[in-house]
Design goal:
The protein is about 35% helix and about 20% strand. By secondary structure, the chain is an alpha+beta fold. The strands form three sheets. Strands 2, 5, 7, 8, 9, 10, 12 and 13 form an eight-stranded antiparallel beta sheet that branches. A three-stranded antiparallel beta sheet has the order 1-6-11, with no helix packed on it.
Length: about 280
Amino acid sequence: MEIVRKRNLSRFARLLLVLAVSLAVSGFGTAVSAKDDDSVDNEDESGENSESDDDEAGENSESDDDEEEESSVKVPMVFPVDGDHSFINSWHFPRDGGARLHEGTDIMAERHSLLVATVDGVIETVRHSNSGKAGNMVVLKDDSGNRFYYIHLNNDEPGTDNGVNLAEQAFAPGIAEGVRVSAGDPIGYVGDSGNAENSSPHVHFALKAADGGAVNPYASLISADVSGQTPAVFGQLAVTGPRDMGFVGLGAVLLIVGALFLFASARFESRSSASTVSAG
């Protein structure tokens, strides 16, 4: 009977550990899904909001088969962030409770990290506004008609999070609509403007093909990332942002509890075995 009891306790501890691991992983996923939307208000060329439900950065709630095929396209480019960074493939992560899907890649980096042109092209849009979802934004159009979106550009003075939103802290010198740039030229700076204000600084990088179809930029970014991507686990933690760390913390606590139960059951079994030997 005692042996059966010990086995049941050990099985229960292992079951609890498995459950804790599952909840921890779920916590990471929930934290990422719960992150604020990185979409952009749909705007016309004058910078005013338009009536369209689709936004400029390709954050449409639905995508058709053509767009799914487009998502695998790899575009030769220079990596947009000049500095330490991390990112994961967050393409089609749910937003607004699953009402629409994420169509871009969030590249986490230090506030005020330099953003550079990914390709040769013309600056099509410069949006200097801390309002709406996008905040400060630059759109670069290459000679083939592809558009590259840099969203949530910096709105803080160096060393602060004051949100004063000075243009010189958001955009590189000389950046204006109609200006031609070469790949690697400075464009702006990483920040948290728009609806990213309460999350970690990052650039929402989106790509649209010449025909307007949304393209998953992840494969292109991986190819361009010659400095090497931060391991996915750290990238995932970065994407959650400080407000969602509660999900991560819950998963971590459950994982620790499961490990402690397993350790306790092993100790109990060891002591019981020792007592049996002594008695014998």
